[in-house]
Amino acid sequence: QPQLVESGGGLVQSGGSLRLSCAASRFTLHYYAMGWFRQAPGKEREGVSCISSGGSSTKYADSVKGRFTISRDNANNMVYLQMNSLKPEDTAVYYCAARSISTCGSAVLPGAYDVWGQGTQVTVSS
After folding, report:
1. What span, in angstroms and rounded, lies between the C-alpha atoms of 30 and 87?
2. Helix (H, G, I), strand (E, B), or coil: what is residue 72?
3. Do the Cβ atoms of 79 and 6 come closer than 8 Å?
4. Backbone torsion region of residue 26, taken as left when φ is above 0, otherwise alpha when ψ lies between -120 and 50, otherwise beta
5. N or C: which end of the chain has fewer CB within 10 A?
6. Average pLDDT score, the chain
């Protein structure tokens, strides 16, 4: 079974930074667009960012544009989310996911992704 494992979450003060990592095993990320999602308590899972299979195209939710940066290292089967200027409203469980298509599509939607990690908690204190 293909597997994704997120790491790098934690507790940070408002204005701080975190870098999330997503490691893939039992499959090769090279052919997959990759996304980051988040889900806060009582809210639906929302798309945060996506990167195409080759890394040439990225998408971001309006709420994180200019603060978050998605990147990938296909040689090492890794995807990253650099989060700067964190706000309390960024508090959520963050998930990475793989889409069995090389492009991100018009929107970052959970239903378009096939493989999911277990999530990592990010908590931003005010």
Report:
1. 32
2. strand
3. no
4. left
5. N
6. 96
Residue 85 DSSP code: S
pLDDT of residue 106: 86
**Pairing mode of beta strands 120-125, 10-13:** parallel
Question: For residue 7, which of 81, 69, 70, 75 has the smallest C-alpha distance?
Answer: 81
| Count of positions (residues) in the chain | 126
pLDDT category, 107, cuts 50, 70, 90?
confident
**Sequence-distant contacts of 37-44: CB under 8 A, at least 24 apart:** 37/94, 37/95, 37/96, 37/97, 37/108, 37/110, 37/113, 38/90, 38/92, 38/93, 38/94, 38/95, 38/122, 39/92, 39/93, 39/95, 39/119, 40/91, 40/92, 40/93, 43/92
Give tens-digit pLDDT for 29-52: 999 999 999 999 999 999 999 999
Most distant CA atoms of the chain, gap in Å: 40
In 3D space, the residue among 63, 61, 66, 73 whose CA is nearest the CA of residue 34 turns out to be 73
